[in-house]
Design brief:
By secondary structure, this protein is mainly β. The protein is built from four helices and 14 strands.
Length: 252
């Protein structure tokens, strides 16, 4: 059965971005992909997203769900049947929604791990934290809205940062079996991001010296999207080589 196209409203999407040593980033993705470089750096990060009205596009809005979700991702490029392509490789997806955990990878692309989320927000301040139910991953992020985009070594201004992440709308995520990458593309005519200042970030993945030796992953910037209507278009899965599939399945 072909997965349905999904619709939702991005009530909040916080992108926390790191500049990463390309050699380290390359070890964290399938051999069919390579890091997409900006000023000599790979770009990786955490996407913390709350979706409202999440549903198959054929259903009315009132039938949709409201879900908190997270993804650890790396900007990538690859050569496929259509030539050179860009997007993101998603090493892990987590969700506070039991439906996402049960249906992801089955009824629609993207396998999710179960997690508990803690979100507090005001007009200016946003706190998003979560811990997976298996206690292996935890993240805590605090940001504050700001009028200026500044401090990034990856992007010269907000427009450049916005264009880069909009071009990475196709995401391919790891699966437990390791034989394929699930594909999903974000589509919207209302793309808009705003700058935020980072107050604090903790991540058991990016703070792990075994994954990222000291100096190989540096916090760069954060961007916020709010109240953006989107659709999620399933993409044909990418298949991975046998050696990588075996290694990935063992690691998970």
């Amino acid at each position: 059965m072909r997965p349905p196209r999904m619709s939702s409203v991005i009530e909040r999407r916080l992108l926390v971005n790191y500049r990463v040593d390309p050699a380290i980033a390359a070890t964290l993705m399938p051999p069919t992909m390579r890091p997409q470089l900006v000023n000599g750096w790979a770009v990786a990060g955490i996407c913390l997203i709350r979706l409202g009205q999440f549903r198959p596009s054929a259903l009315p809005r009132w039938a949709g769900l409201r879900t908190e979700n997270a993804a650890h991702r790396i900007a990538v490029e690859w050569d496929g049947p259509q030539g050179h392509s860009t997007g993101v490789y998603i090493a892990r997806r987590d969700s506070g929604s039991l439906i996402n955990v049960l249906a992801g990878g089955r009824l629609f692309p993207g396998e999710h791990n179960a997690a508990r989320f803690d979100v507090r927000e005001t007009a200016r301040d946003l706190h998003v934290a979560y811990r997976t139910r298996d206690e292996t991953i935890s993240v805590s992020v605090d940001v504050r809205t700001t009028e200026r985009f500044q401090g990034s070594e990856l992007f010269a201004d907000l427009a450049q940062a916005s264009a880069f992440f909009r071009q990475g709308s196709a995401g391919f995520s790891a699966t437990r079996g390791g034989q394929r990458l699930d594909g999903l593309e974000l589509r919207t005519d209302a793309w808009q991001v705003e700058p935020v200042g980072i107050q604090s970030v903790r991540s058991t993945i990016f703070d792990d010296p075994d994954r990222f030796p000291p100096g190989s992953a540096e916090l760069d910037c954060a961007l916020l999207m709010r109240q953006v209507p989107v659709t999620w278009q399933p993409l044909p899965p990418q298949h991975v080589v046998a050696d990588y599939a075996t290694e990935t399945h063992s690691a998970r």
